[in-house]
Amino acid sequence: MKLALRQTQRVVMTPLLQQAIQLLQLSTLELEQVVRKELEENPLLEEVATDDAEASPAAATPEPAVAETSPQPADDAPREAAVEGERADDLPFDLNQVMFDHVDERTPVSTEERDELPFENLAGGSAPLLADHLAEQLRLATNDEETLRIGLAIIGNVDDDGYLRAEIEEIAEGTGSPSDRVAEVLRLVQGFDPRGVAARSIQECLLLQLTADPEPDPVSVEIVEQHFEDLGRRRYAEIARVMKLPLDRIMESVEEIQALEPKPGRQFGQNDSRYIVPDVTIQKVGGDYVVILNEEGIPRLRVNSLYRSLLRRSGDEAKQYVEQKIRSAVWLIKSVEQRQRTLRKVVQSLVNFQRDFLDKGLPHLRPLALRDVGDDISMHESTISRVTTNKYVQTPQGLFELKFFFHSGIASTNGAMVSSVSVKQMIREMVEKEEGGTALSDQEIAQALRARGLNIARRTVAKYREELGILPSHQRRVRAGKR
Question: What confidence score (pLDDT) does residue 370 get?
């Protein structure tokens, strides 16, 4: 047992630091929500009106960051002296600068006038919901109250793909009707449009679509009814042997089955429209690319000047509360500004690395790692990862997620690296140019890429092909033969 003094250094994740890290990962819309929420909860924060900011001299000449010490304007000197003389303890920032003069730096895109989108362009023309479509057919099909009640219960248990996700016994118990009556109404609903709706399995869904034809193909019906497992495993020769039919006849039925819709409800609207608002825009001005942050909607923040009297005249308990809220408000302002500066640095670094892509398009996309950008702007790659999460950039080549620019590469014979995205594009183009019943194997594609100077293995080609959703060569030959 002994007493000893030891001096160590460690990183402590304070709540304020956690907040700053969290803001890095937010998109522009999410950041706006966080700032709006903080405005509601913190009485010392207030939003600077755009008109006031443009009319004030501070807006024309942005003030330094709140953490920096800078001389105040002459007209604020008496006010600063009054507060400094009555402040109980020193705060680690210039209080008056934050309370009266702080206007955060904004890019030109935040102050320019924008034309409002036409109302007719906003989520118009959406498809009707599947449940409404089925309920309308049910009301046209019967006037019986019990049938309507059971039918609506069945429709209420149909998911977005068009499948019934409840057992007949459950619906019977919920509606207080006999099971055979529920089964009868289910058959009625299964006859509605779209074909195959309210099925309880994909096998039943396909059968409903086949038997909806007045003269269904008996071979196709038998394949789905009795050989569904072999059909799923593509054992066409085994099906032909058991059914004692030529393989060509089996393939005709397989082609008909493949043309059916496995998800009947997918054609109907599901109220899941998603709109992507780019967080950053890369715009070409002359011969250079300019990075413009999308700050529209993010409130300009400052500390409410009315609370200076509380800090001067209130008691210890109230003063402690005000100081705590001031610290929280200033930290939020600084964190938002730091996020914007970091995002601008990262995107500017991407512009420097991907200049050929911005000029010439996807084939010239350069392989890039998080560490490359981190080394370029002297930041840790974990920070780069957080900044590029859930954010999109509008470029002259289209809208992309920031993570899109970080991927591996394939070495070429001249020592340069070629982006894996460009290699995938080459593979896609080769497959699209296949003629007739010919289909390039993975090995042949690898050889063709090697002829272009890329050192790529067959298994890498197979991996990229699967990521592109391209079938293997033997399955592509079958499809080409059927066509």
Answer: 86
What type of residue sits at position 475?
A: Q
396 occurs within a structural domain: no
Rounded mean pLDDT of 469-476? 78
Q: Which residues contact 296 (CB under 8 A, 6 or more apart)?
A: 109, 110, 114
For 45, the enclosing helix (H) or strand (E) is strand 45-48
Which token pair is 467? Answer: 């990521």
Residue 453 reports pLDDT greater than 60: yes
Preceding amide of 194 cis, omega within 30? yes
The rounded distance, in Å, linking the Cα atoms of 483 and 473 is 15
End-to-end CA distance of the chain: 86
Burial (0-12, 13-18, 19+ Cβ within 10 Å), 191: middle
The whole-angstrom separation of Cα 324 and Cα 330 is 10
- For residue 416, what pLDDT band results from cuts at 50, 70 and 90? low
- What percentage of the chain has pLDDT greater than the value 90? 26
418 and 442 in a single domain? The answer is yes
Find all residues with CB under 8 Å of 114, minimum gap 6, and list them: 296
Q: Give the torsion through C-alpha atoms of 423, 426, 427, 428, to 10 deg.
A: 120
Closest CA to 253 of 5, 15, 482: 482
> Domain containing 221: what range?
130-267
Of residues 462 and 116, more confidence is placed in 462
CA pair distance 415, 413, nearest whole angstrom: 5
78-130 confidence digits (pLDDT tens): 333 333 333 333 444 444 444 444 444 444 444 444 444 444 444 444 557 89
Residues 134 and 144: their CA atoms lie apart, in Å, by: 16
Which of 200, 235, 267 terminates a domain? The answer is 267
Residue with tokens 């160590």: 8
Same domain, yes or no: 374 and 415: no
Domain boundary among 206, 240, 267: 267
| pLDDT at residue 283 is higher than 70 | yes
Confidence of residue 72 (pLDDT cuts 50, 70, 90): very low
- Distance from C-alpha of 93 to C-alpha of 327, rounded to nearest angstrom: 9
User: Phi then psi for 155, rounded to 5 degrees?
Assistant: -65, -35
Cα–Cα distances in Å, from 440 out to 363, 425, 462, 480?
22, 15, 12, 12
Indicate whether 422 belongs to any domain: yes
In this prediction the pTM is 0.53
